[in-house]
Amino acid sequence: xxxxxxxxxxxxxxxxxxxxxxxxxxxxxxxxxxxxxxxxxxxxxxxxxxxxxxxxxxxxxxxxxxxxxxxxxxxxxxxxxxxxxxxxxxxxxxxxxxxxxxxxxxxxxxxxxxxxxxxxxxxxxxxxxxxxxxxxxxxxxxxxxxxxxxxxxxxxxxxxxxxxxxxxxxxxxxxxxxxxxxxxxxxxxxxxxxxxxxxxxxxxxxxxxxxxxxxxxxxxxxxxxxxxxxxxxx
Length: 234
Fold this sequence. Notes:
Elements: E1 2-7, H1 17-36, H2 40-47, H3 51-56, H4 71-74, H5 82-103, H6 105-127, H7 139-152, E2 157-164, E3 166-173, H8 174-194, H9 205-222
Antiparallel strand pairs: 1-2, 2-3
């Protein structure tokens, strides 16, 4: 199921400036990656989050940023393909604006970056110091957005496209869509563990699980602070 929009009972208070800005930054960084040509792998190795470098503090050529932990942030804006980028940005656009509207721009940005770092660290700690493959992508941070969205808006309807023979548009609840998404991540994570790895098919699935869990926990902790906004929880 591919989400394409929300069915809200009331309009958002803003256009989602932070969400849209994050999307623009991600697109611009990816265009820069394309412009690098054959040098893109060095760029990704430099600014992606490399488990061995983060866990040992030892830089592996090509030289990384100083301090190395900056990779935890820079890696959130790198993507490996158009499909990787478009899929992440679509989820961020559909679900991020409502979470931003609830938290406010500044808190939302801090939430996005902090949860993204936590998600990446989940992958890094499970990968261990022998892993030298750079972890890239915004999906860990976006998973946190999905976790918060599920807690705050479980009954809200989301428009999705389902490829059944031909493309069909349906409306499902966030509980069904995001619950199904999270179950898939858990299954992939279990498969990765069975194979003695922290990723499945080259995807850092434990970053998805970690990010989603962080987002859901933060949303539960903050929910009592948004009593005046409860009508939006639909």
